[in-house]
Amino acid sequence: MTDIRHIAAHVCNYTNFDAVVIGSGPSGSIVARTLAEKGCHVAVLEYGGPACPGAMLGPHQAAYSKALTSNGHADGNPWTACCVGGGMGFYNAITFRYRQADLSASQYLTTDMAIDWPITVEELEPYYLEIEHLLEISGANGFPSYPASPRGLMLSNAMQELGIRSKTIPLAIRPPGTNKGCINCSACDELACPTDARASVLARNILDDSALPGTISVLYGCFVNRIQMQNDGRAGALECYVPLSSELIRIPIERVIVCANAIQTAALMLRSKSDHAPKGIGNESGLVGRGLSFKIGGYSVGYMERADGGSDAFAPHWGPHSTVYTDEFYEHNGAPCKFGGLIYEANFPLPNENVGVVRLHYIAGEEPWSHNRVALDEAADQYGTPYIRFEYRSSENDRARRNFLADRADDILRHLRAFRIEREPYFPGKGSSHLHGTMRAGSDPRNSVVDSCGRVHGLTNIHVMDGSVMNFAGNSNPTHTIMANARRMAMSLGEGAI
Ligand SMILES: Cc1cc2nc3c(=O)[nH]c(=O)nc-3n(C[C@H](O)[C@H](O)[C@H](O)COP(=O)(O)OP(=O)(O)OC[C@H]3O[C@@H](n4cnc5c(N)ncnc54)[C@H](O)[C@@H]3O)c2cc1C
Question: What percent of the chain has pLDDT over 90?
Answer without folding.
Answer: 91
